[in-house]
């Protein structure tokens, strides 16, 4: 095996490992917001490792360009999607983990418009 093949295999293994950790995060985390944190971060890293392994394994400029474009697309969309899902879950009243100490986001009844004394 060449060094390029070993590097591609190592990146692919790292991607599979972080994807597995993201799946474990979905199973083990207690509420929606912590699950979103685990899945968005770990799955973004897993996709990045897999796409970089793909661009290294195939010695083609077209494949490398598409893989880098896919990495850029994932980096732009994954945080936005996680944020939108988290805001929607919070707006729908999905309960937080009972041991949550700080909630800095005002709910529908706690916002500035709900305050009778300005």
Characterise the protein shown here.
This protein is 70% helix and 0% strand. With 118 residues, it is an all-alpha fold. It has one domain (3-95). Helix 1 packs antiparallel against helix 2 (32-57) and helix 2 (32-57) runs antiparallel to helix 3. 16% of the residues are buried.
**Strand segment count:** 0
Q: Note the gap between the termini.
A: 71 Å
As a percent range, the share of strand residues is under 5%
Per DSSP, the total helix count is 3
**Low-confidence blocks of residues:** 109-118
Structural class: mainly alpha
User: Helices and strands, in N-to-C order?
Assistant: HHH
Helix fraction bin:
over 70%
Topology:
Blueprint: H1 3-28, H2 32-57, H3 61-91
Helix pairs in contact: 1-2, 2-3
State the gist of this model:
With 118 residues, this protein is mainly α. Helices cover 70% and strands 0% of the residues.
């Amino acid at each position: 095996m060449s060094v390029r093949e070993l590097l591609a295999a190592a990146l692919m293994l790292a991607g599979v490992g972080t994807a597995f950790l993201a799946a474990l995060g979905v199973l083990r985390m207690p509420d929606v917001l912590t699950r979103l944190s685990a899945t968005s971060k770990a799955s973004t890293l897993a996709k990045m490792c897999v796409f970089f392994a793909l661009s290294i394994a195939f010695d083609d400029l077209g494949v490398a360009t598409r893989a880098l474009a896919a990495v850029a697309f994932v980096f732009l969309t994954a945080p936005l999607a996680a944020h939108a899902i988290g805001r929607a879950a919070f707006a729908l009243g999905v309960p937080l983990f009972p041991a949550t100490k700080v909630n800095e986001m005002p709910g529908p009844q706690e916002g500035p418009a709900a305050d009778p004394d300005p």
